[in-house]
């Protein structure tokens, strides 16, 4: 802990480890319709009761036959649209078949119709295909009895589709965290209201609510809290009575208008403060009652970055997610960075046309445009300068905002 004047900054990895050590998964499950489970975490392995596809089926509109018959003129003895049940195919016969229709027993190959012609009602293959072509095998996607989605999987568009392909109408997911959110700042005004002198629109509320929503959390929005100790303490008490997590923005730095740290110390305890991260240094973590307290810096980019790097893993751990941190990728910097900081930096960067990384010109933590422009964050270790052409670590927003 620091006295607030000369903070000994905590390395980010240590801070994240300490934060995650405080987080126990919430426990508790609920069963939801598959369509309603986006953003949630699967509570138990999902085992498929069926093979997918359930039978060998055609990948093309064309004709099913036996490969050995490919060079003969074949009578077309049945017509098999998708959804119908075929009859067995005898040697020397072909069947008209459509994409997705079950291949008749006896047939082993499908020839697309463009590679065939009918001669007096009989099928001639004009362009032979290899044996087994265009047949999608039973169970080649999912085998009955296998785990389609493991416990801890986060449910996104692809995993929900996969659950449905295995026939799951409902999914058992972990309990969603209740997160009470408030913004602090006498200067804050809500969009839609006039902007008086000295004021600024409250953007963090919207960023944070959307981030929480994406992570499957239930938001308790306590609005804007003025910059005074009593109001901040009262807001913390209310938040702790209503939520598993209290998430605030602003008022965590060292000015006498920053009341969150003393308020948390009065109402509970402060475990972590001042991280070696840029932007986002005054990030704070503690407890108020049974609730976790997380204080994000007010600057909009600091608030966003600390959420993505520190809060997101914590909220995922609360929900029992298997993967807490995003993948990083090694990419080439397209610019020089001659001014290393003591803090680990997260620069807002974009993929350039050569597959390297370009940087937004203004990296101020107040410039939210930088994050909108960017494709992700360049994760630069503390004290490190780099040059164009050097390899750096890139974390795409596609990973962080999923
Ligand atoms: N003497 C020092 N001053 C500051 C330090 C320091 O080490 N010594 N750290 C700076 C850093 S780094 C950051 S980050 C900020 C964090 O400040 P706070 O968390 O106390 O946030 P505020 O002072 O309340 O606000 C900062 C900035 O952000 C704007 N803001 C706040 N909330 C919102 C919101 N909901 N929507 C949009 N904008 C918001 C606010 O107007 C301020 O401009 O402290 C530095 N100071
Ligand atoms: O940490 Mo502050 O975010 O450098 O502006
Ligand atoms: Mg401040």
From TrEMBL:
Question: What organism does the UniProt record list as the source?
Answer: Pelomonas parva
| SMART domains xref list | MoCF_biosynth
Record protein name field: Molybdopterin molybdenumtransferase
| Superkingdom of this protein's organism | Bacteria
Family according to the record: Belongs to the MoeA family.
| Domain annotation MoaB/Mog: ranges | 180-317
Query: Which cofactors must be present for this protein to function?
Result: Mg(2+)
Keyword terms: Magnesium, Metal-binding, Molybdenum, Molybdenum cofactor biosynthesis, Transferase
Gene name of this polypeptide: glp
- Keyword Methyltransferase tagged: no
The reaction(s) this protein catalyses: adenylyl-molybdopterin + molybdate = Mo-molybdopterin + AMP + H(+)
- EC number(s) of the enzyme? 2.10.1.1
Q: State whether keyword Oxidoreductase applies.
A: no
Top enzyme class, one word, equals transferase
Q: Which Pfam families does the record associate with it?
A: MoCF_biosynth, MoeA_C, MoeA_N
Q: Which residues form the signal peptide?
A: none
Q: Which InterPro entries match?
A: MoaB/Mog-like_dom_sf (IPR036425), MoaB/Mog_dom (IPR001453), MoeA-like (IPR038987), MoeA_C_domain_IV (IPR005111), MoeA_C_domain_IV_sf (IPR036688), MoeA_linker/N (IPR005110), MoeA_linker/N_sf (IPR036135)
Biological or metabolic pathway of the protein: Cofactor biosynthesis; molybdopterin biosynthesis
Q: What task does this protein carry out?
A: Catalyzes the insertion of molybdate into adenylated molybdopterin with the concomitant release of AMP.
């Amino acid at each position: 802990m620091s006295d607030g004047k000369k903070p000994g900054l905590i390395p980010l990895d240590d801070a994240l480890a300490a934060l995650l050590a405080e987080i126990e998964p919430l426990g508790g499950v609920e069963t939801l319709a598959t369509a309603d489970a986006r953003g949630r975490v699967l509570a138990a392995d999902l085992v498929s009761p069926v093979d997918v596809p359930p039978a060998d089926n055609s990948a093309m509109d064309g004709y099913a036959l036996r490969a050995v018959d490919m060079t003969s003129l074949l009578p077309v003895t049945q017509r098999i649209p998708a959804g119908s049940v075929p009859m067995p195919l005898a040697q020397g016969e072909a069947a008209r078949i459509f994409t997705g229709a079950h291949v008749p027993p006896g047939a082993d190959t499908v020839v697309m119709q463009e590679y065939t012609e009918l001669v007096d009602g009989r099928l001639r293959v004009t362009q032979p295909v290899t044996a087994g072509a265009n047949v999608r095998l039973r169970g080649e996607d999912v085998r009955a009895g296998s785990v389609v989605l493991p416990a801890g999987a986060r449910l996104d568009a692809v995993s929900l589709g996969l659950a449905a392909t295995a026939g799951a109408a409902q999914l058992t997911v972990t309990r969603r965290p209740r997160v009470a959110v408030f913004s602090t700042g006498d200067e804050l005004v809500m969009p839609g209201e006039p902007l008086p002198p000295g004021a600024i629109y409250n953007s963090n509320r919207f960023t944070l609510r959307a981030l929480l929503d994406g992570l499957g959390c239930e938001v308790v929005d306590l609005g804007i809290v003025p910059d005074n100790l009593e109001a901040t303490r009262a807001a913390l008490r209310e938040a702790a009575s209503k939520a598993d997590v209290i998430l605030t923005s602003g008022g965590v730095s060292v000015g006498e208008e920053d009341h969150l740290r003393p308020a948390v110390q009065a109402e509970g305890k402060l475990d972590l403060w001042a991280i070696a991260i840029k932007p986002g240094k005054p990030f704070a973590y503690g407890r108020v009652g049974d609730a976790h307290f997380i204080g994000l810096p007010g600057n909009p980019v600091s608030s966003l970055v600390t959420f993505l790097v520190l809060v997101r893993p914590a909220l995922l751990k609360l929900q029992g997610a298997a993967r807490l941190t995003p993948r990083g990728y090694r990419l080439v910097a397209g610019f020089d960075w001659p001014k290393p900081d003591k803090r680990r930096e997260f620069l807002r960067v974009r993929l350039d046309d050569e597959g390297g990384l370009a940087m937004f010109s203004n990296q101020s933590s107040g410039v939210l445009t930088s994050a909108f422009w960017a494709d992700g964050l360049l994760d630069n270790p503390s004290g490190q300068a780099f040059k164009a052409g050097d390899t750096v670590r890139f974390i795409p927003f596609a990973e962080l905002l999923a």
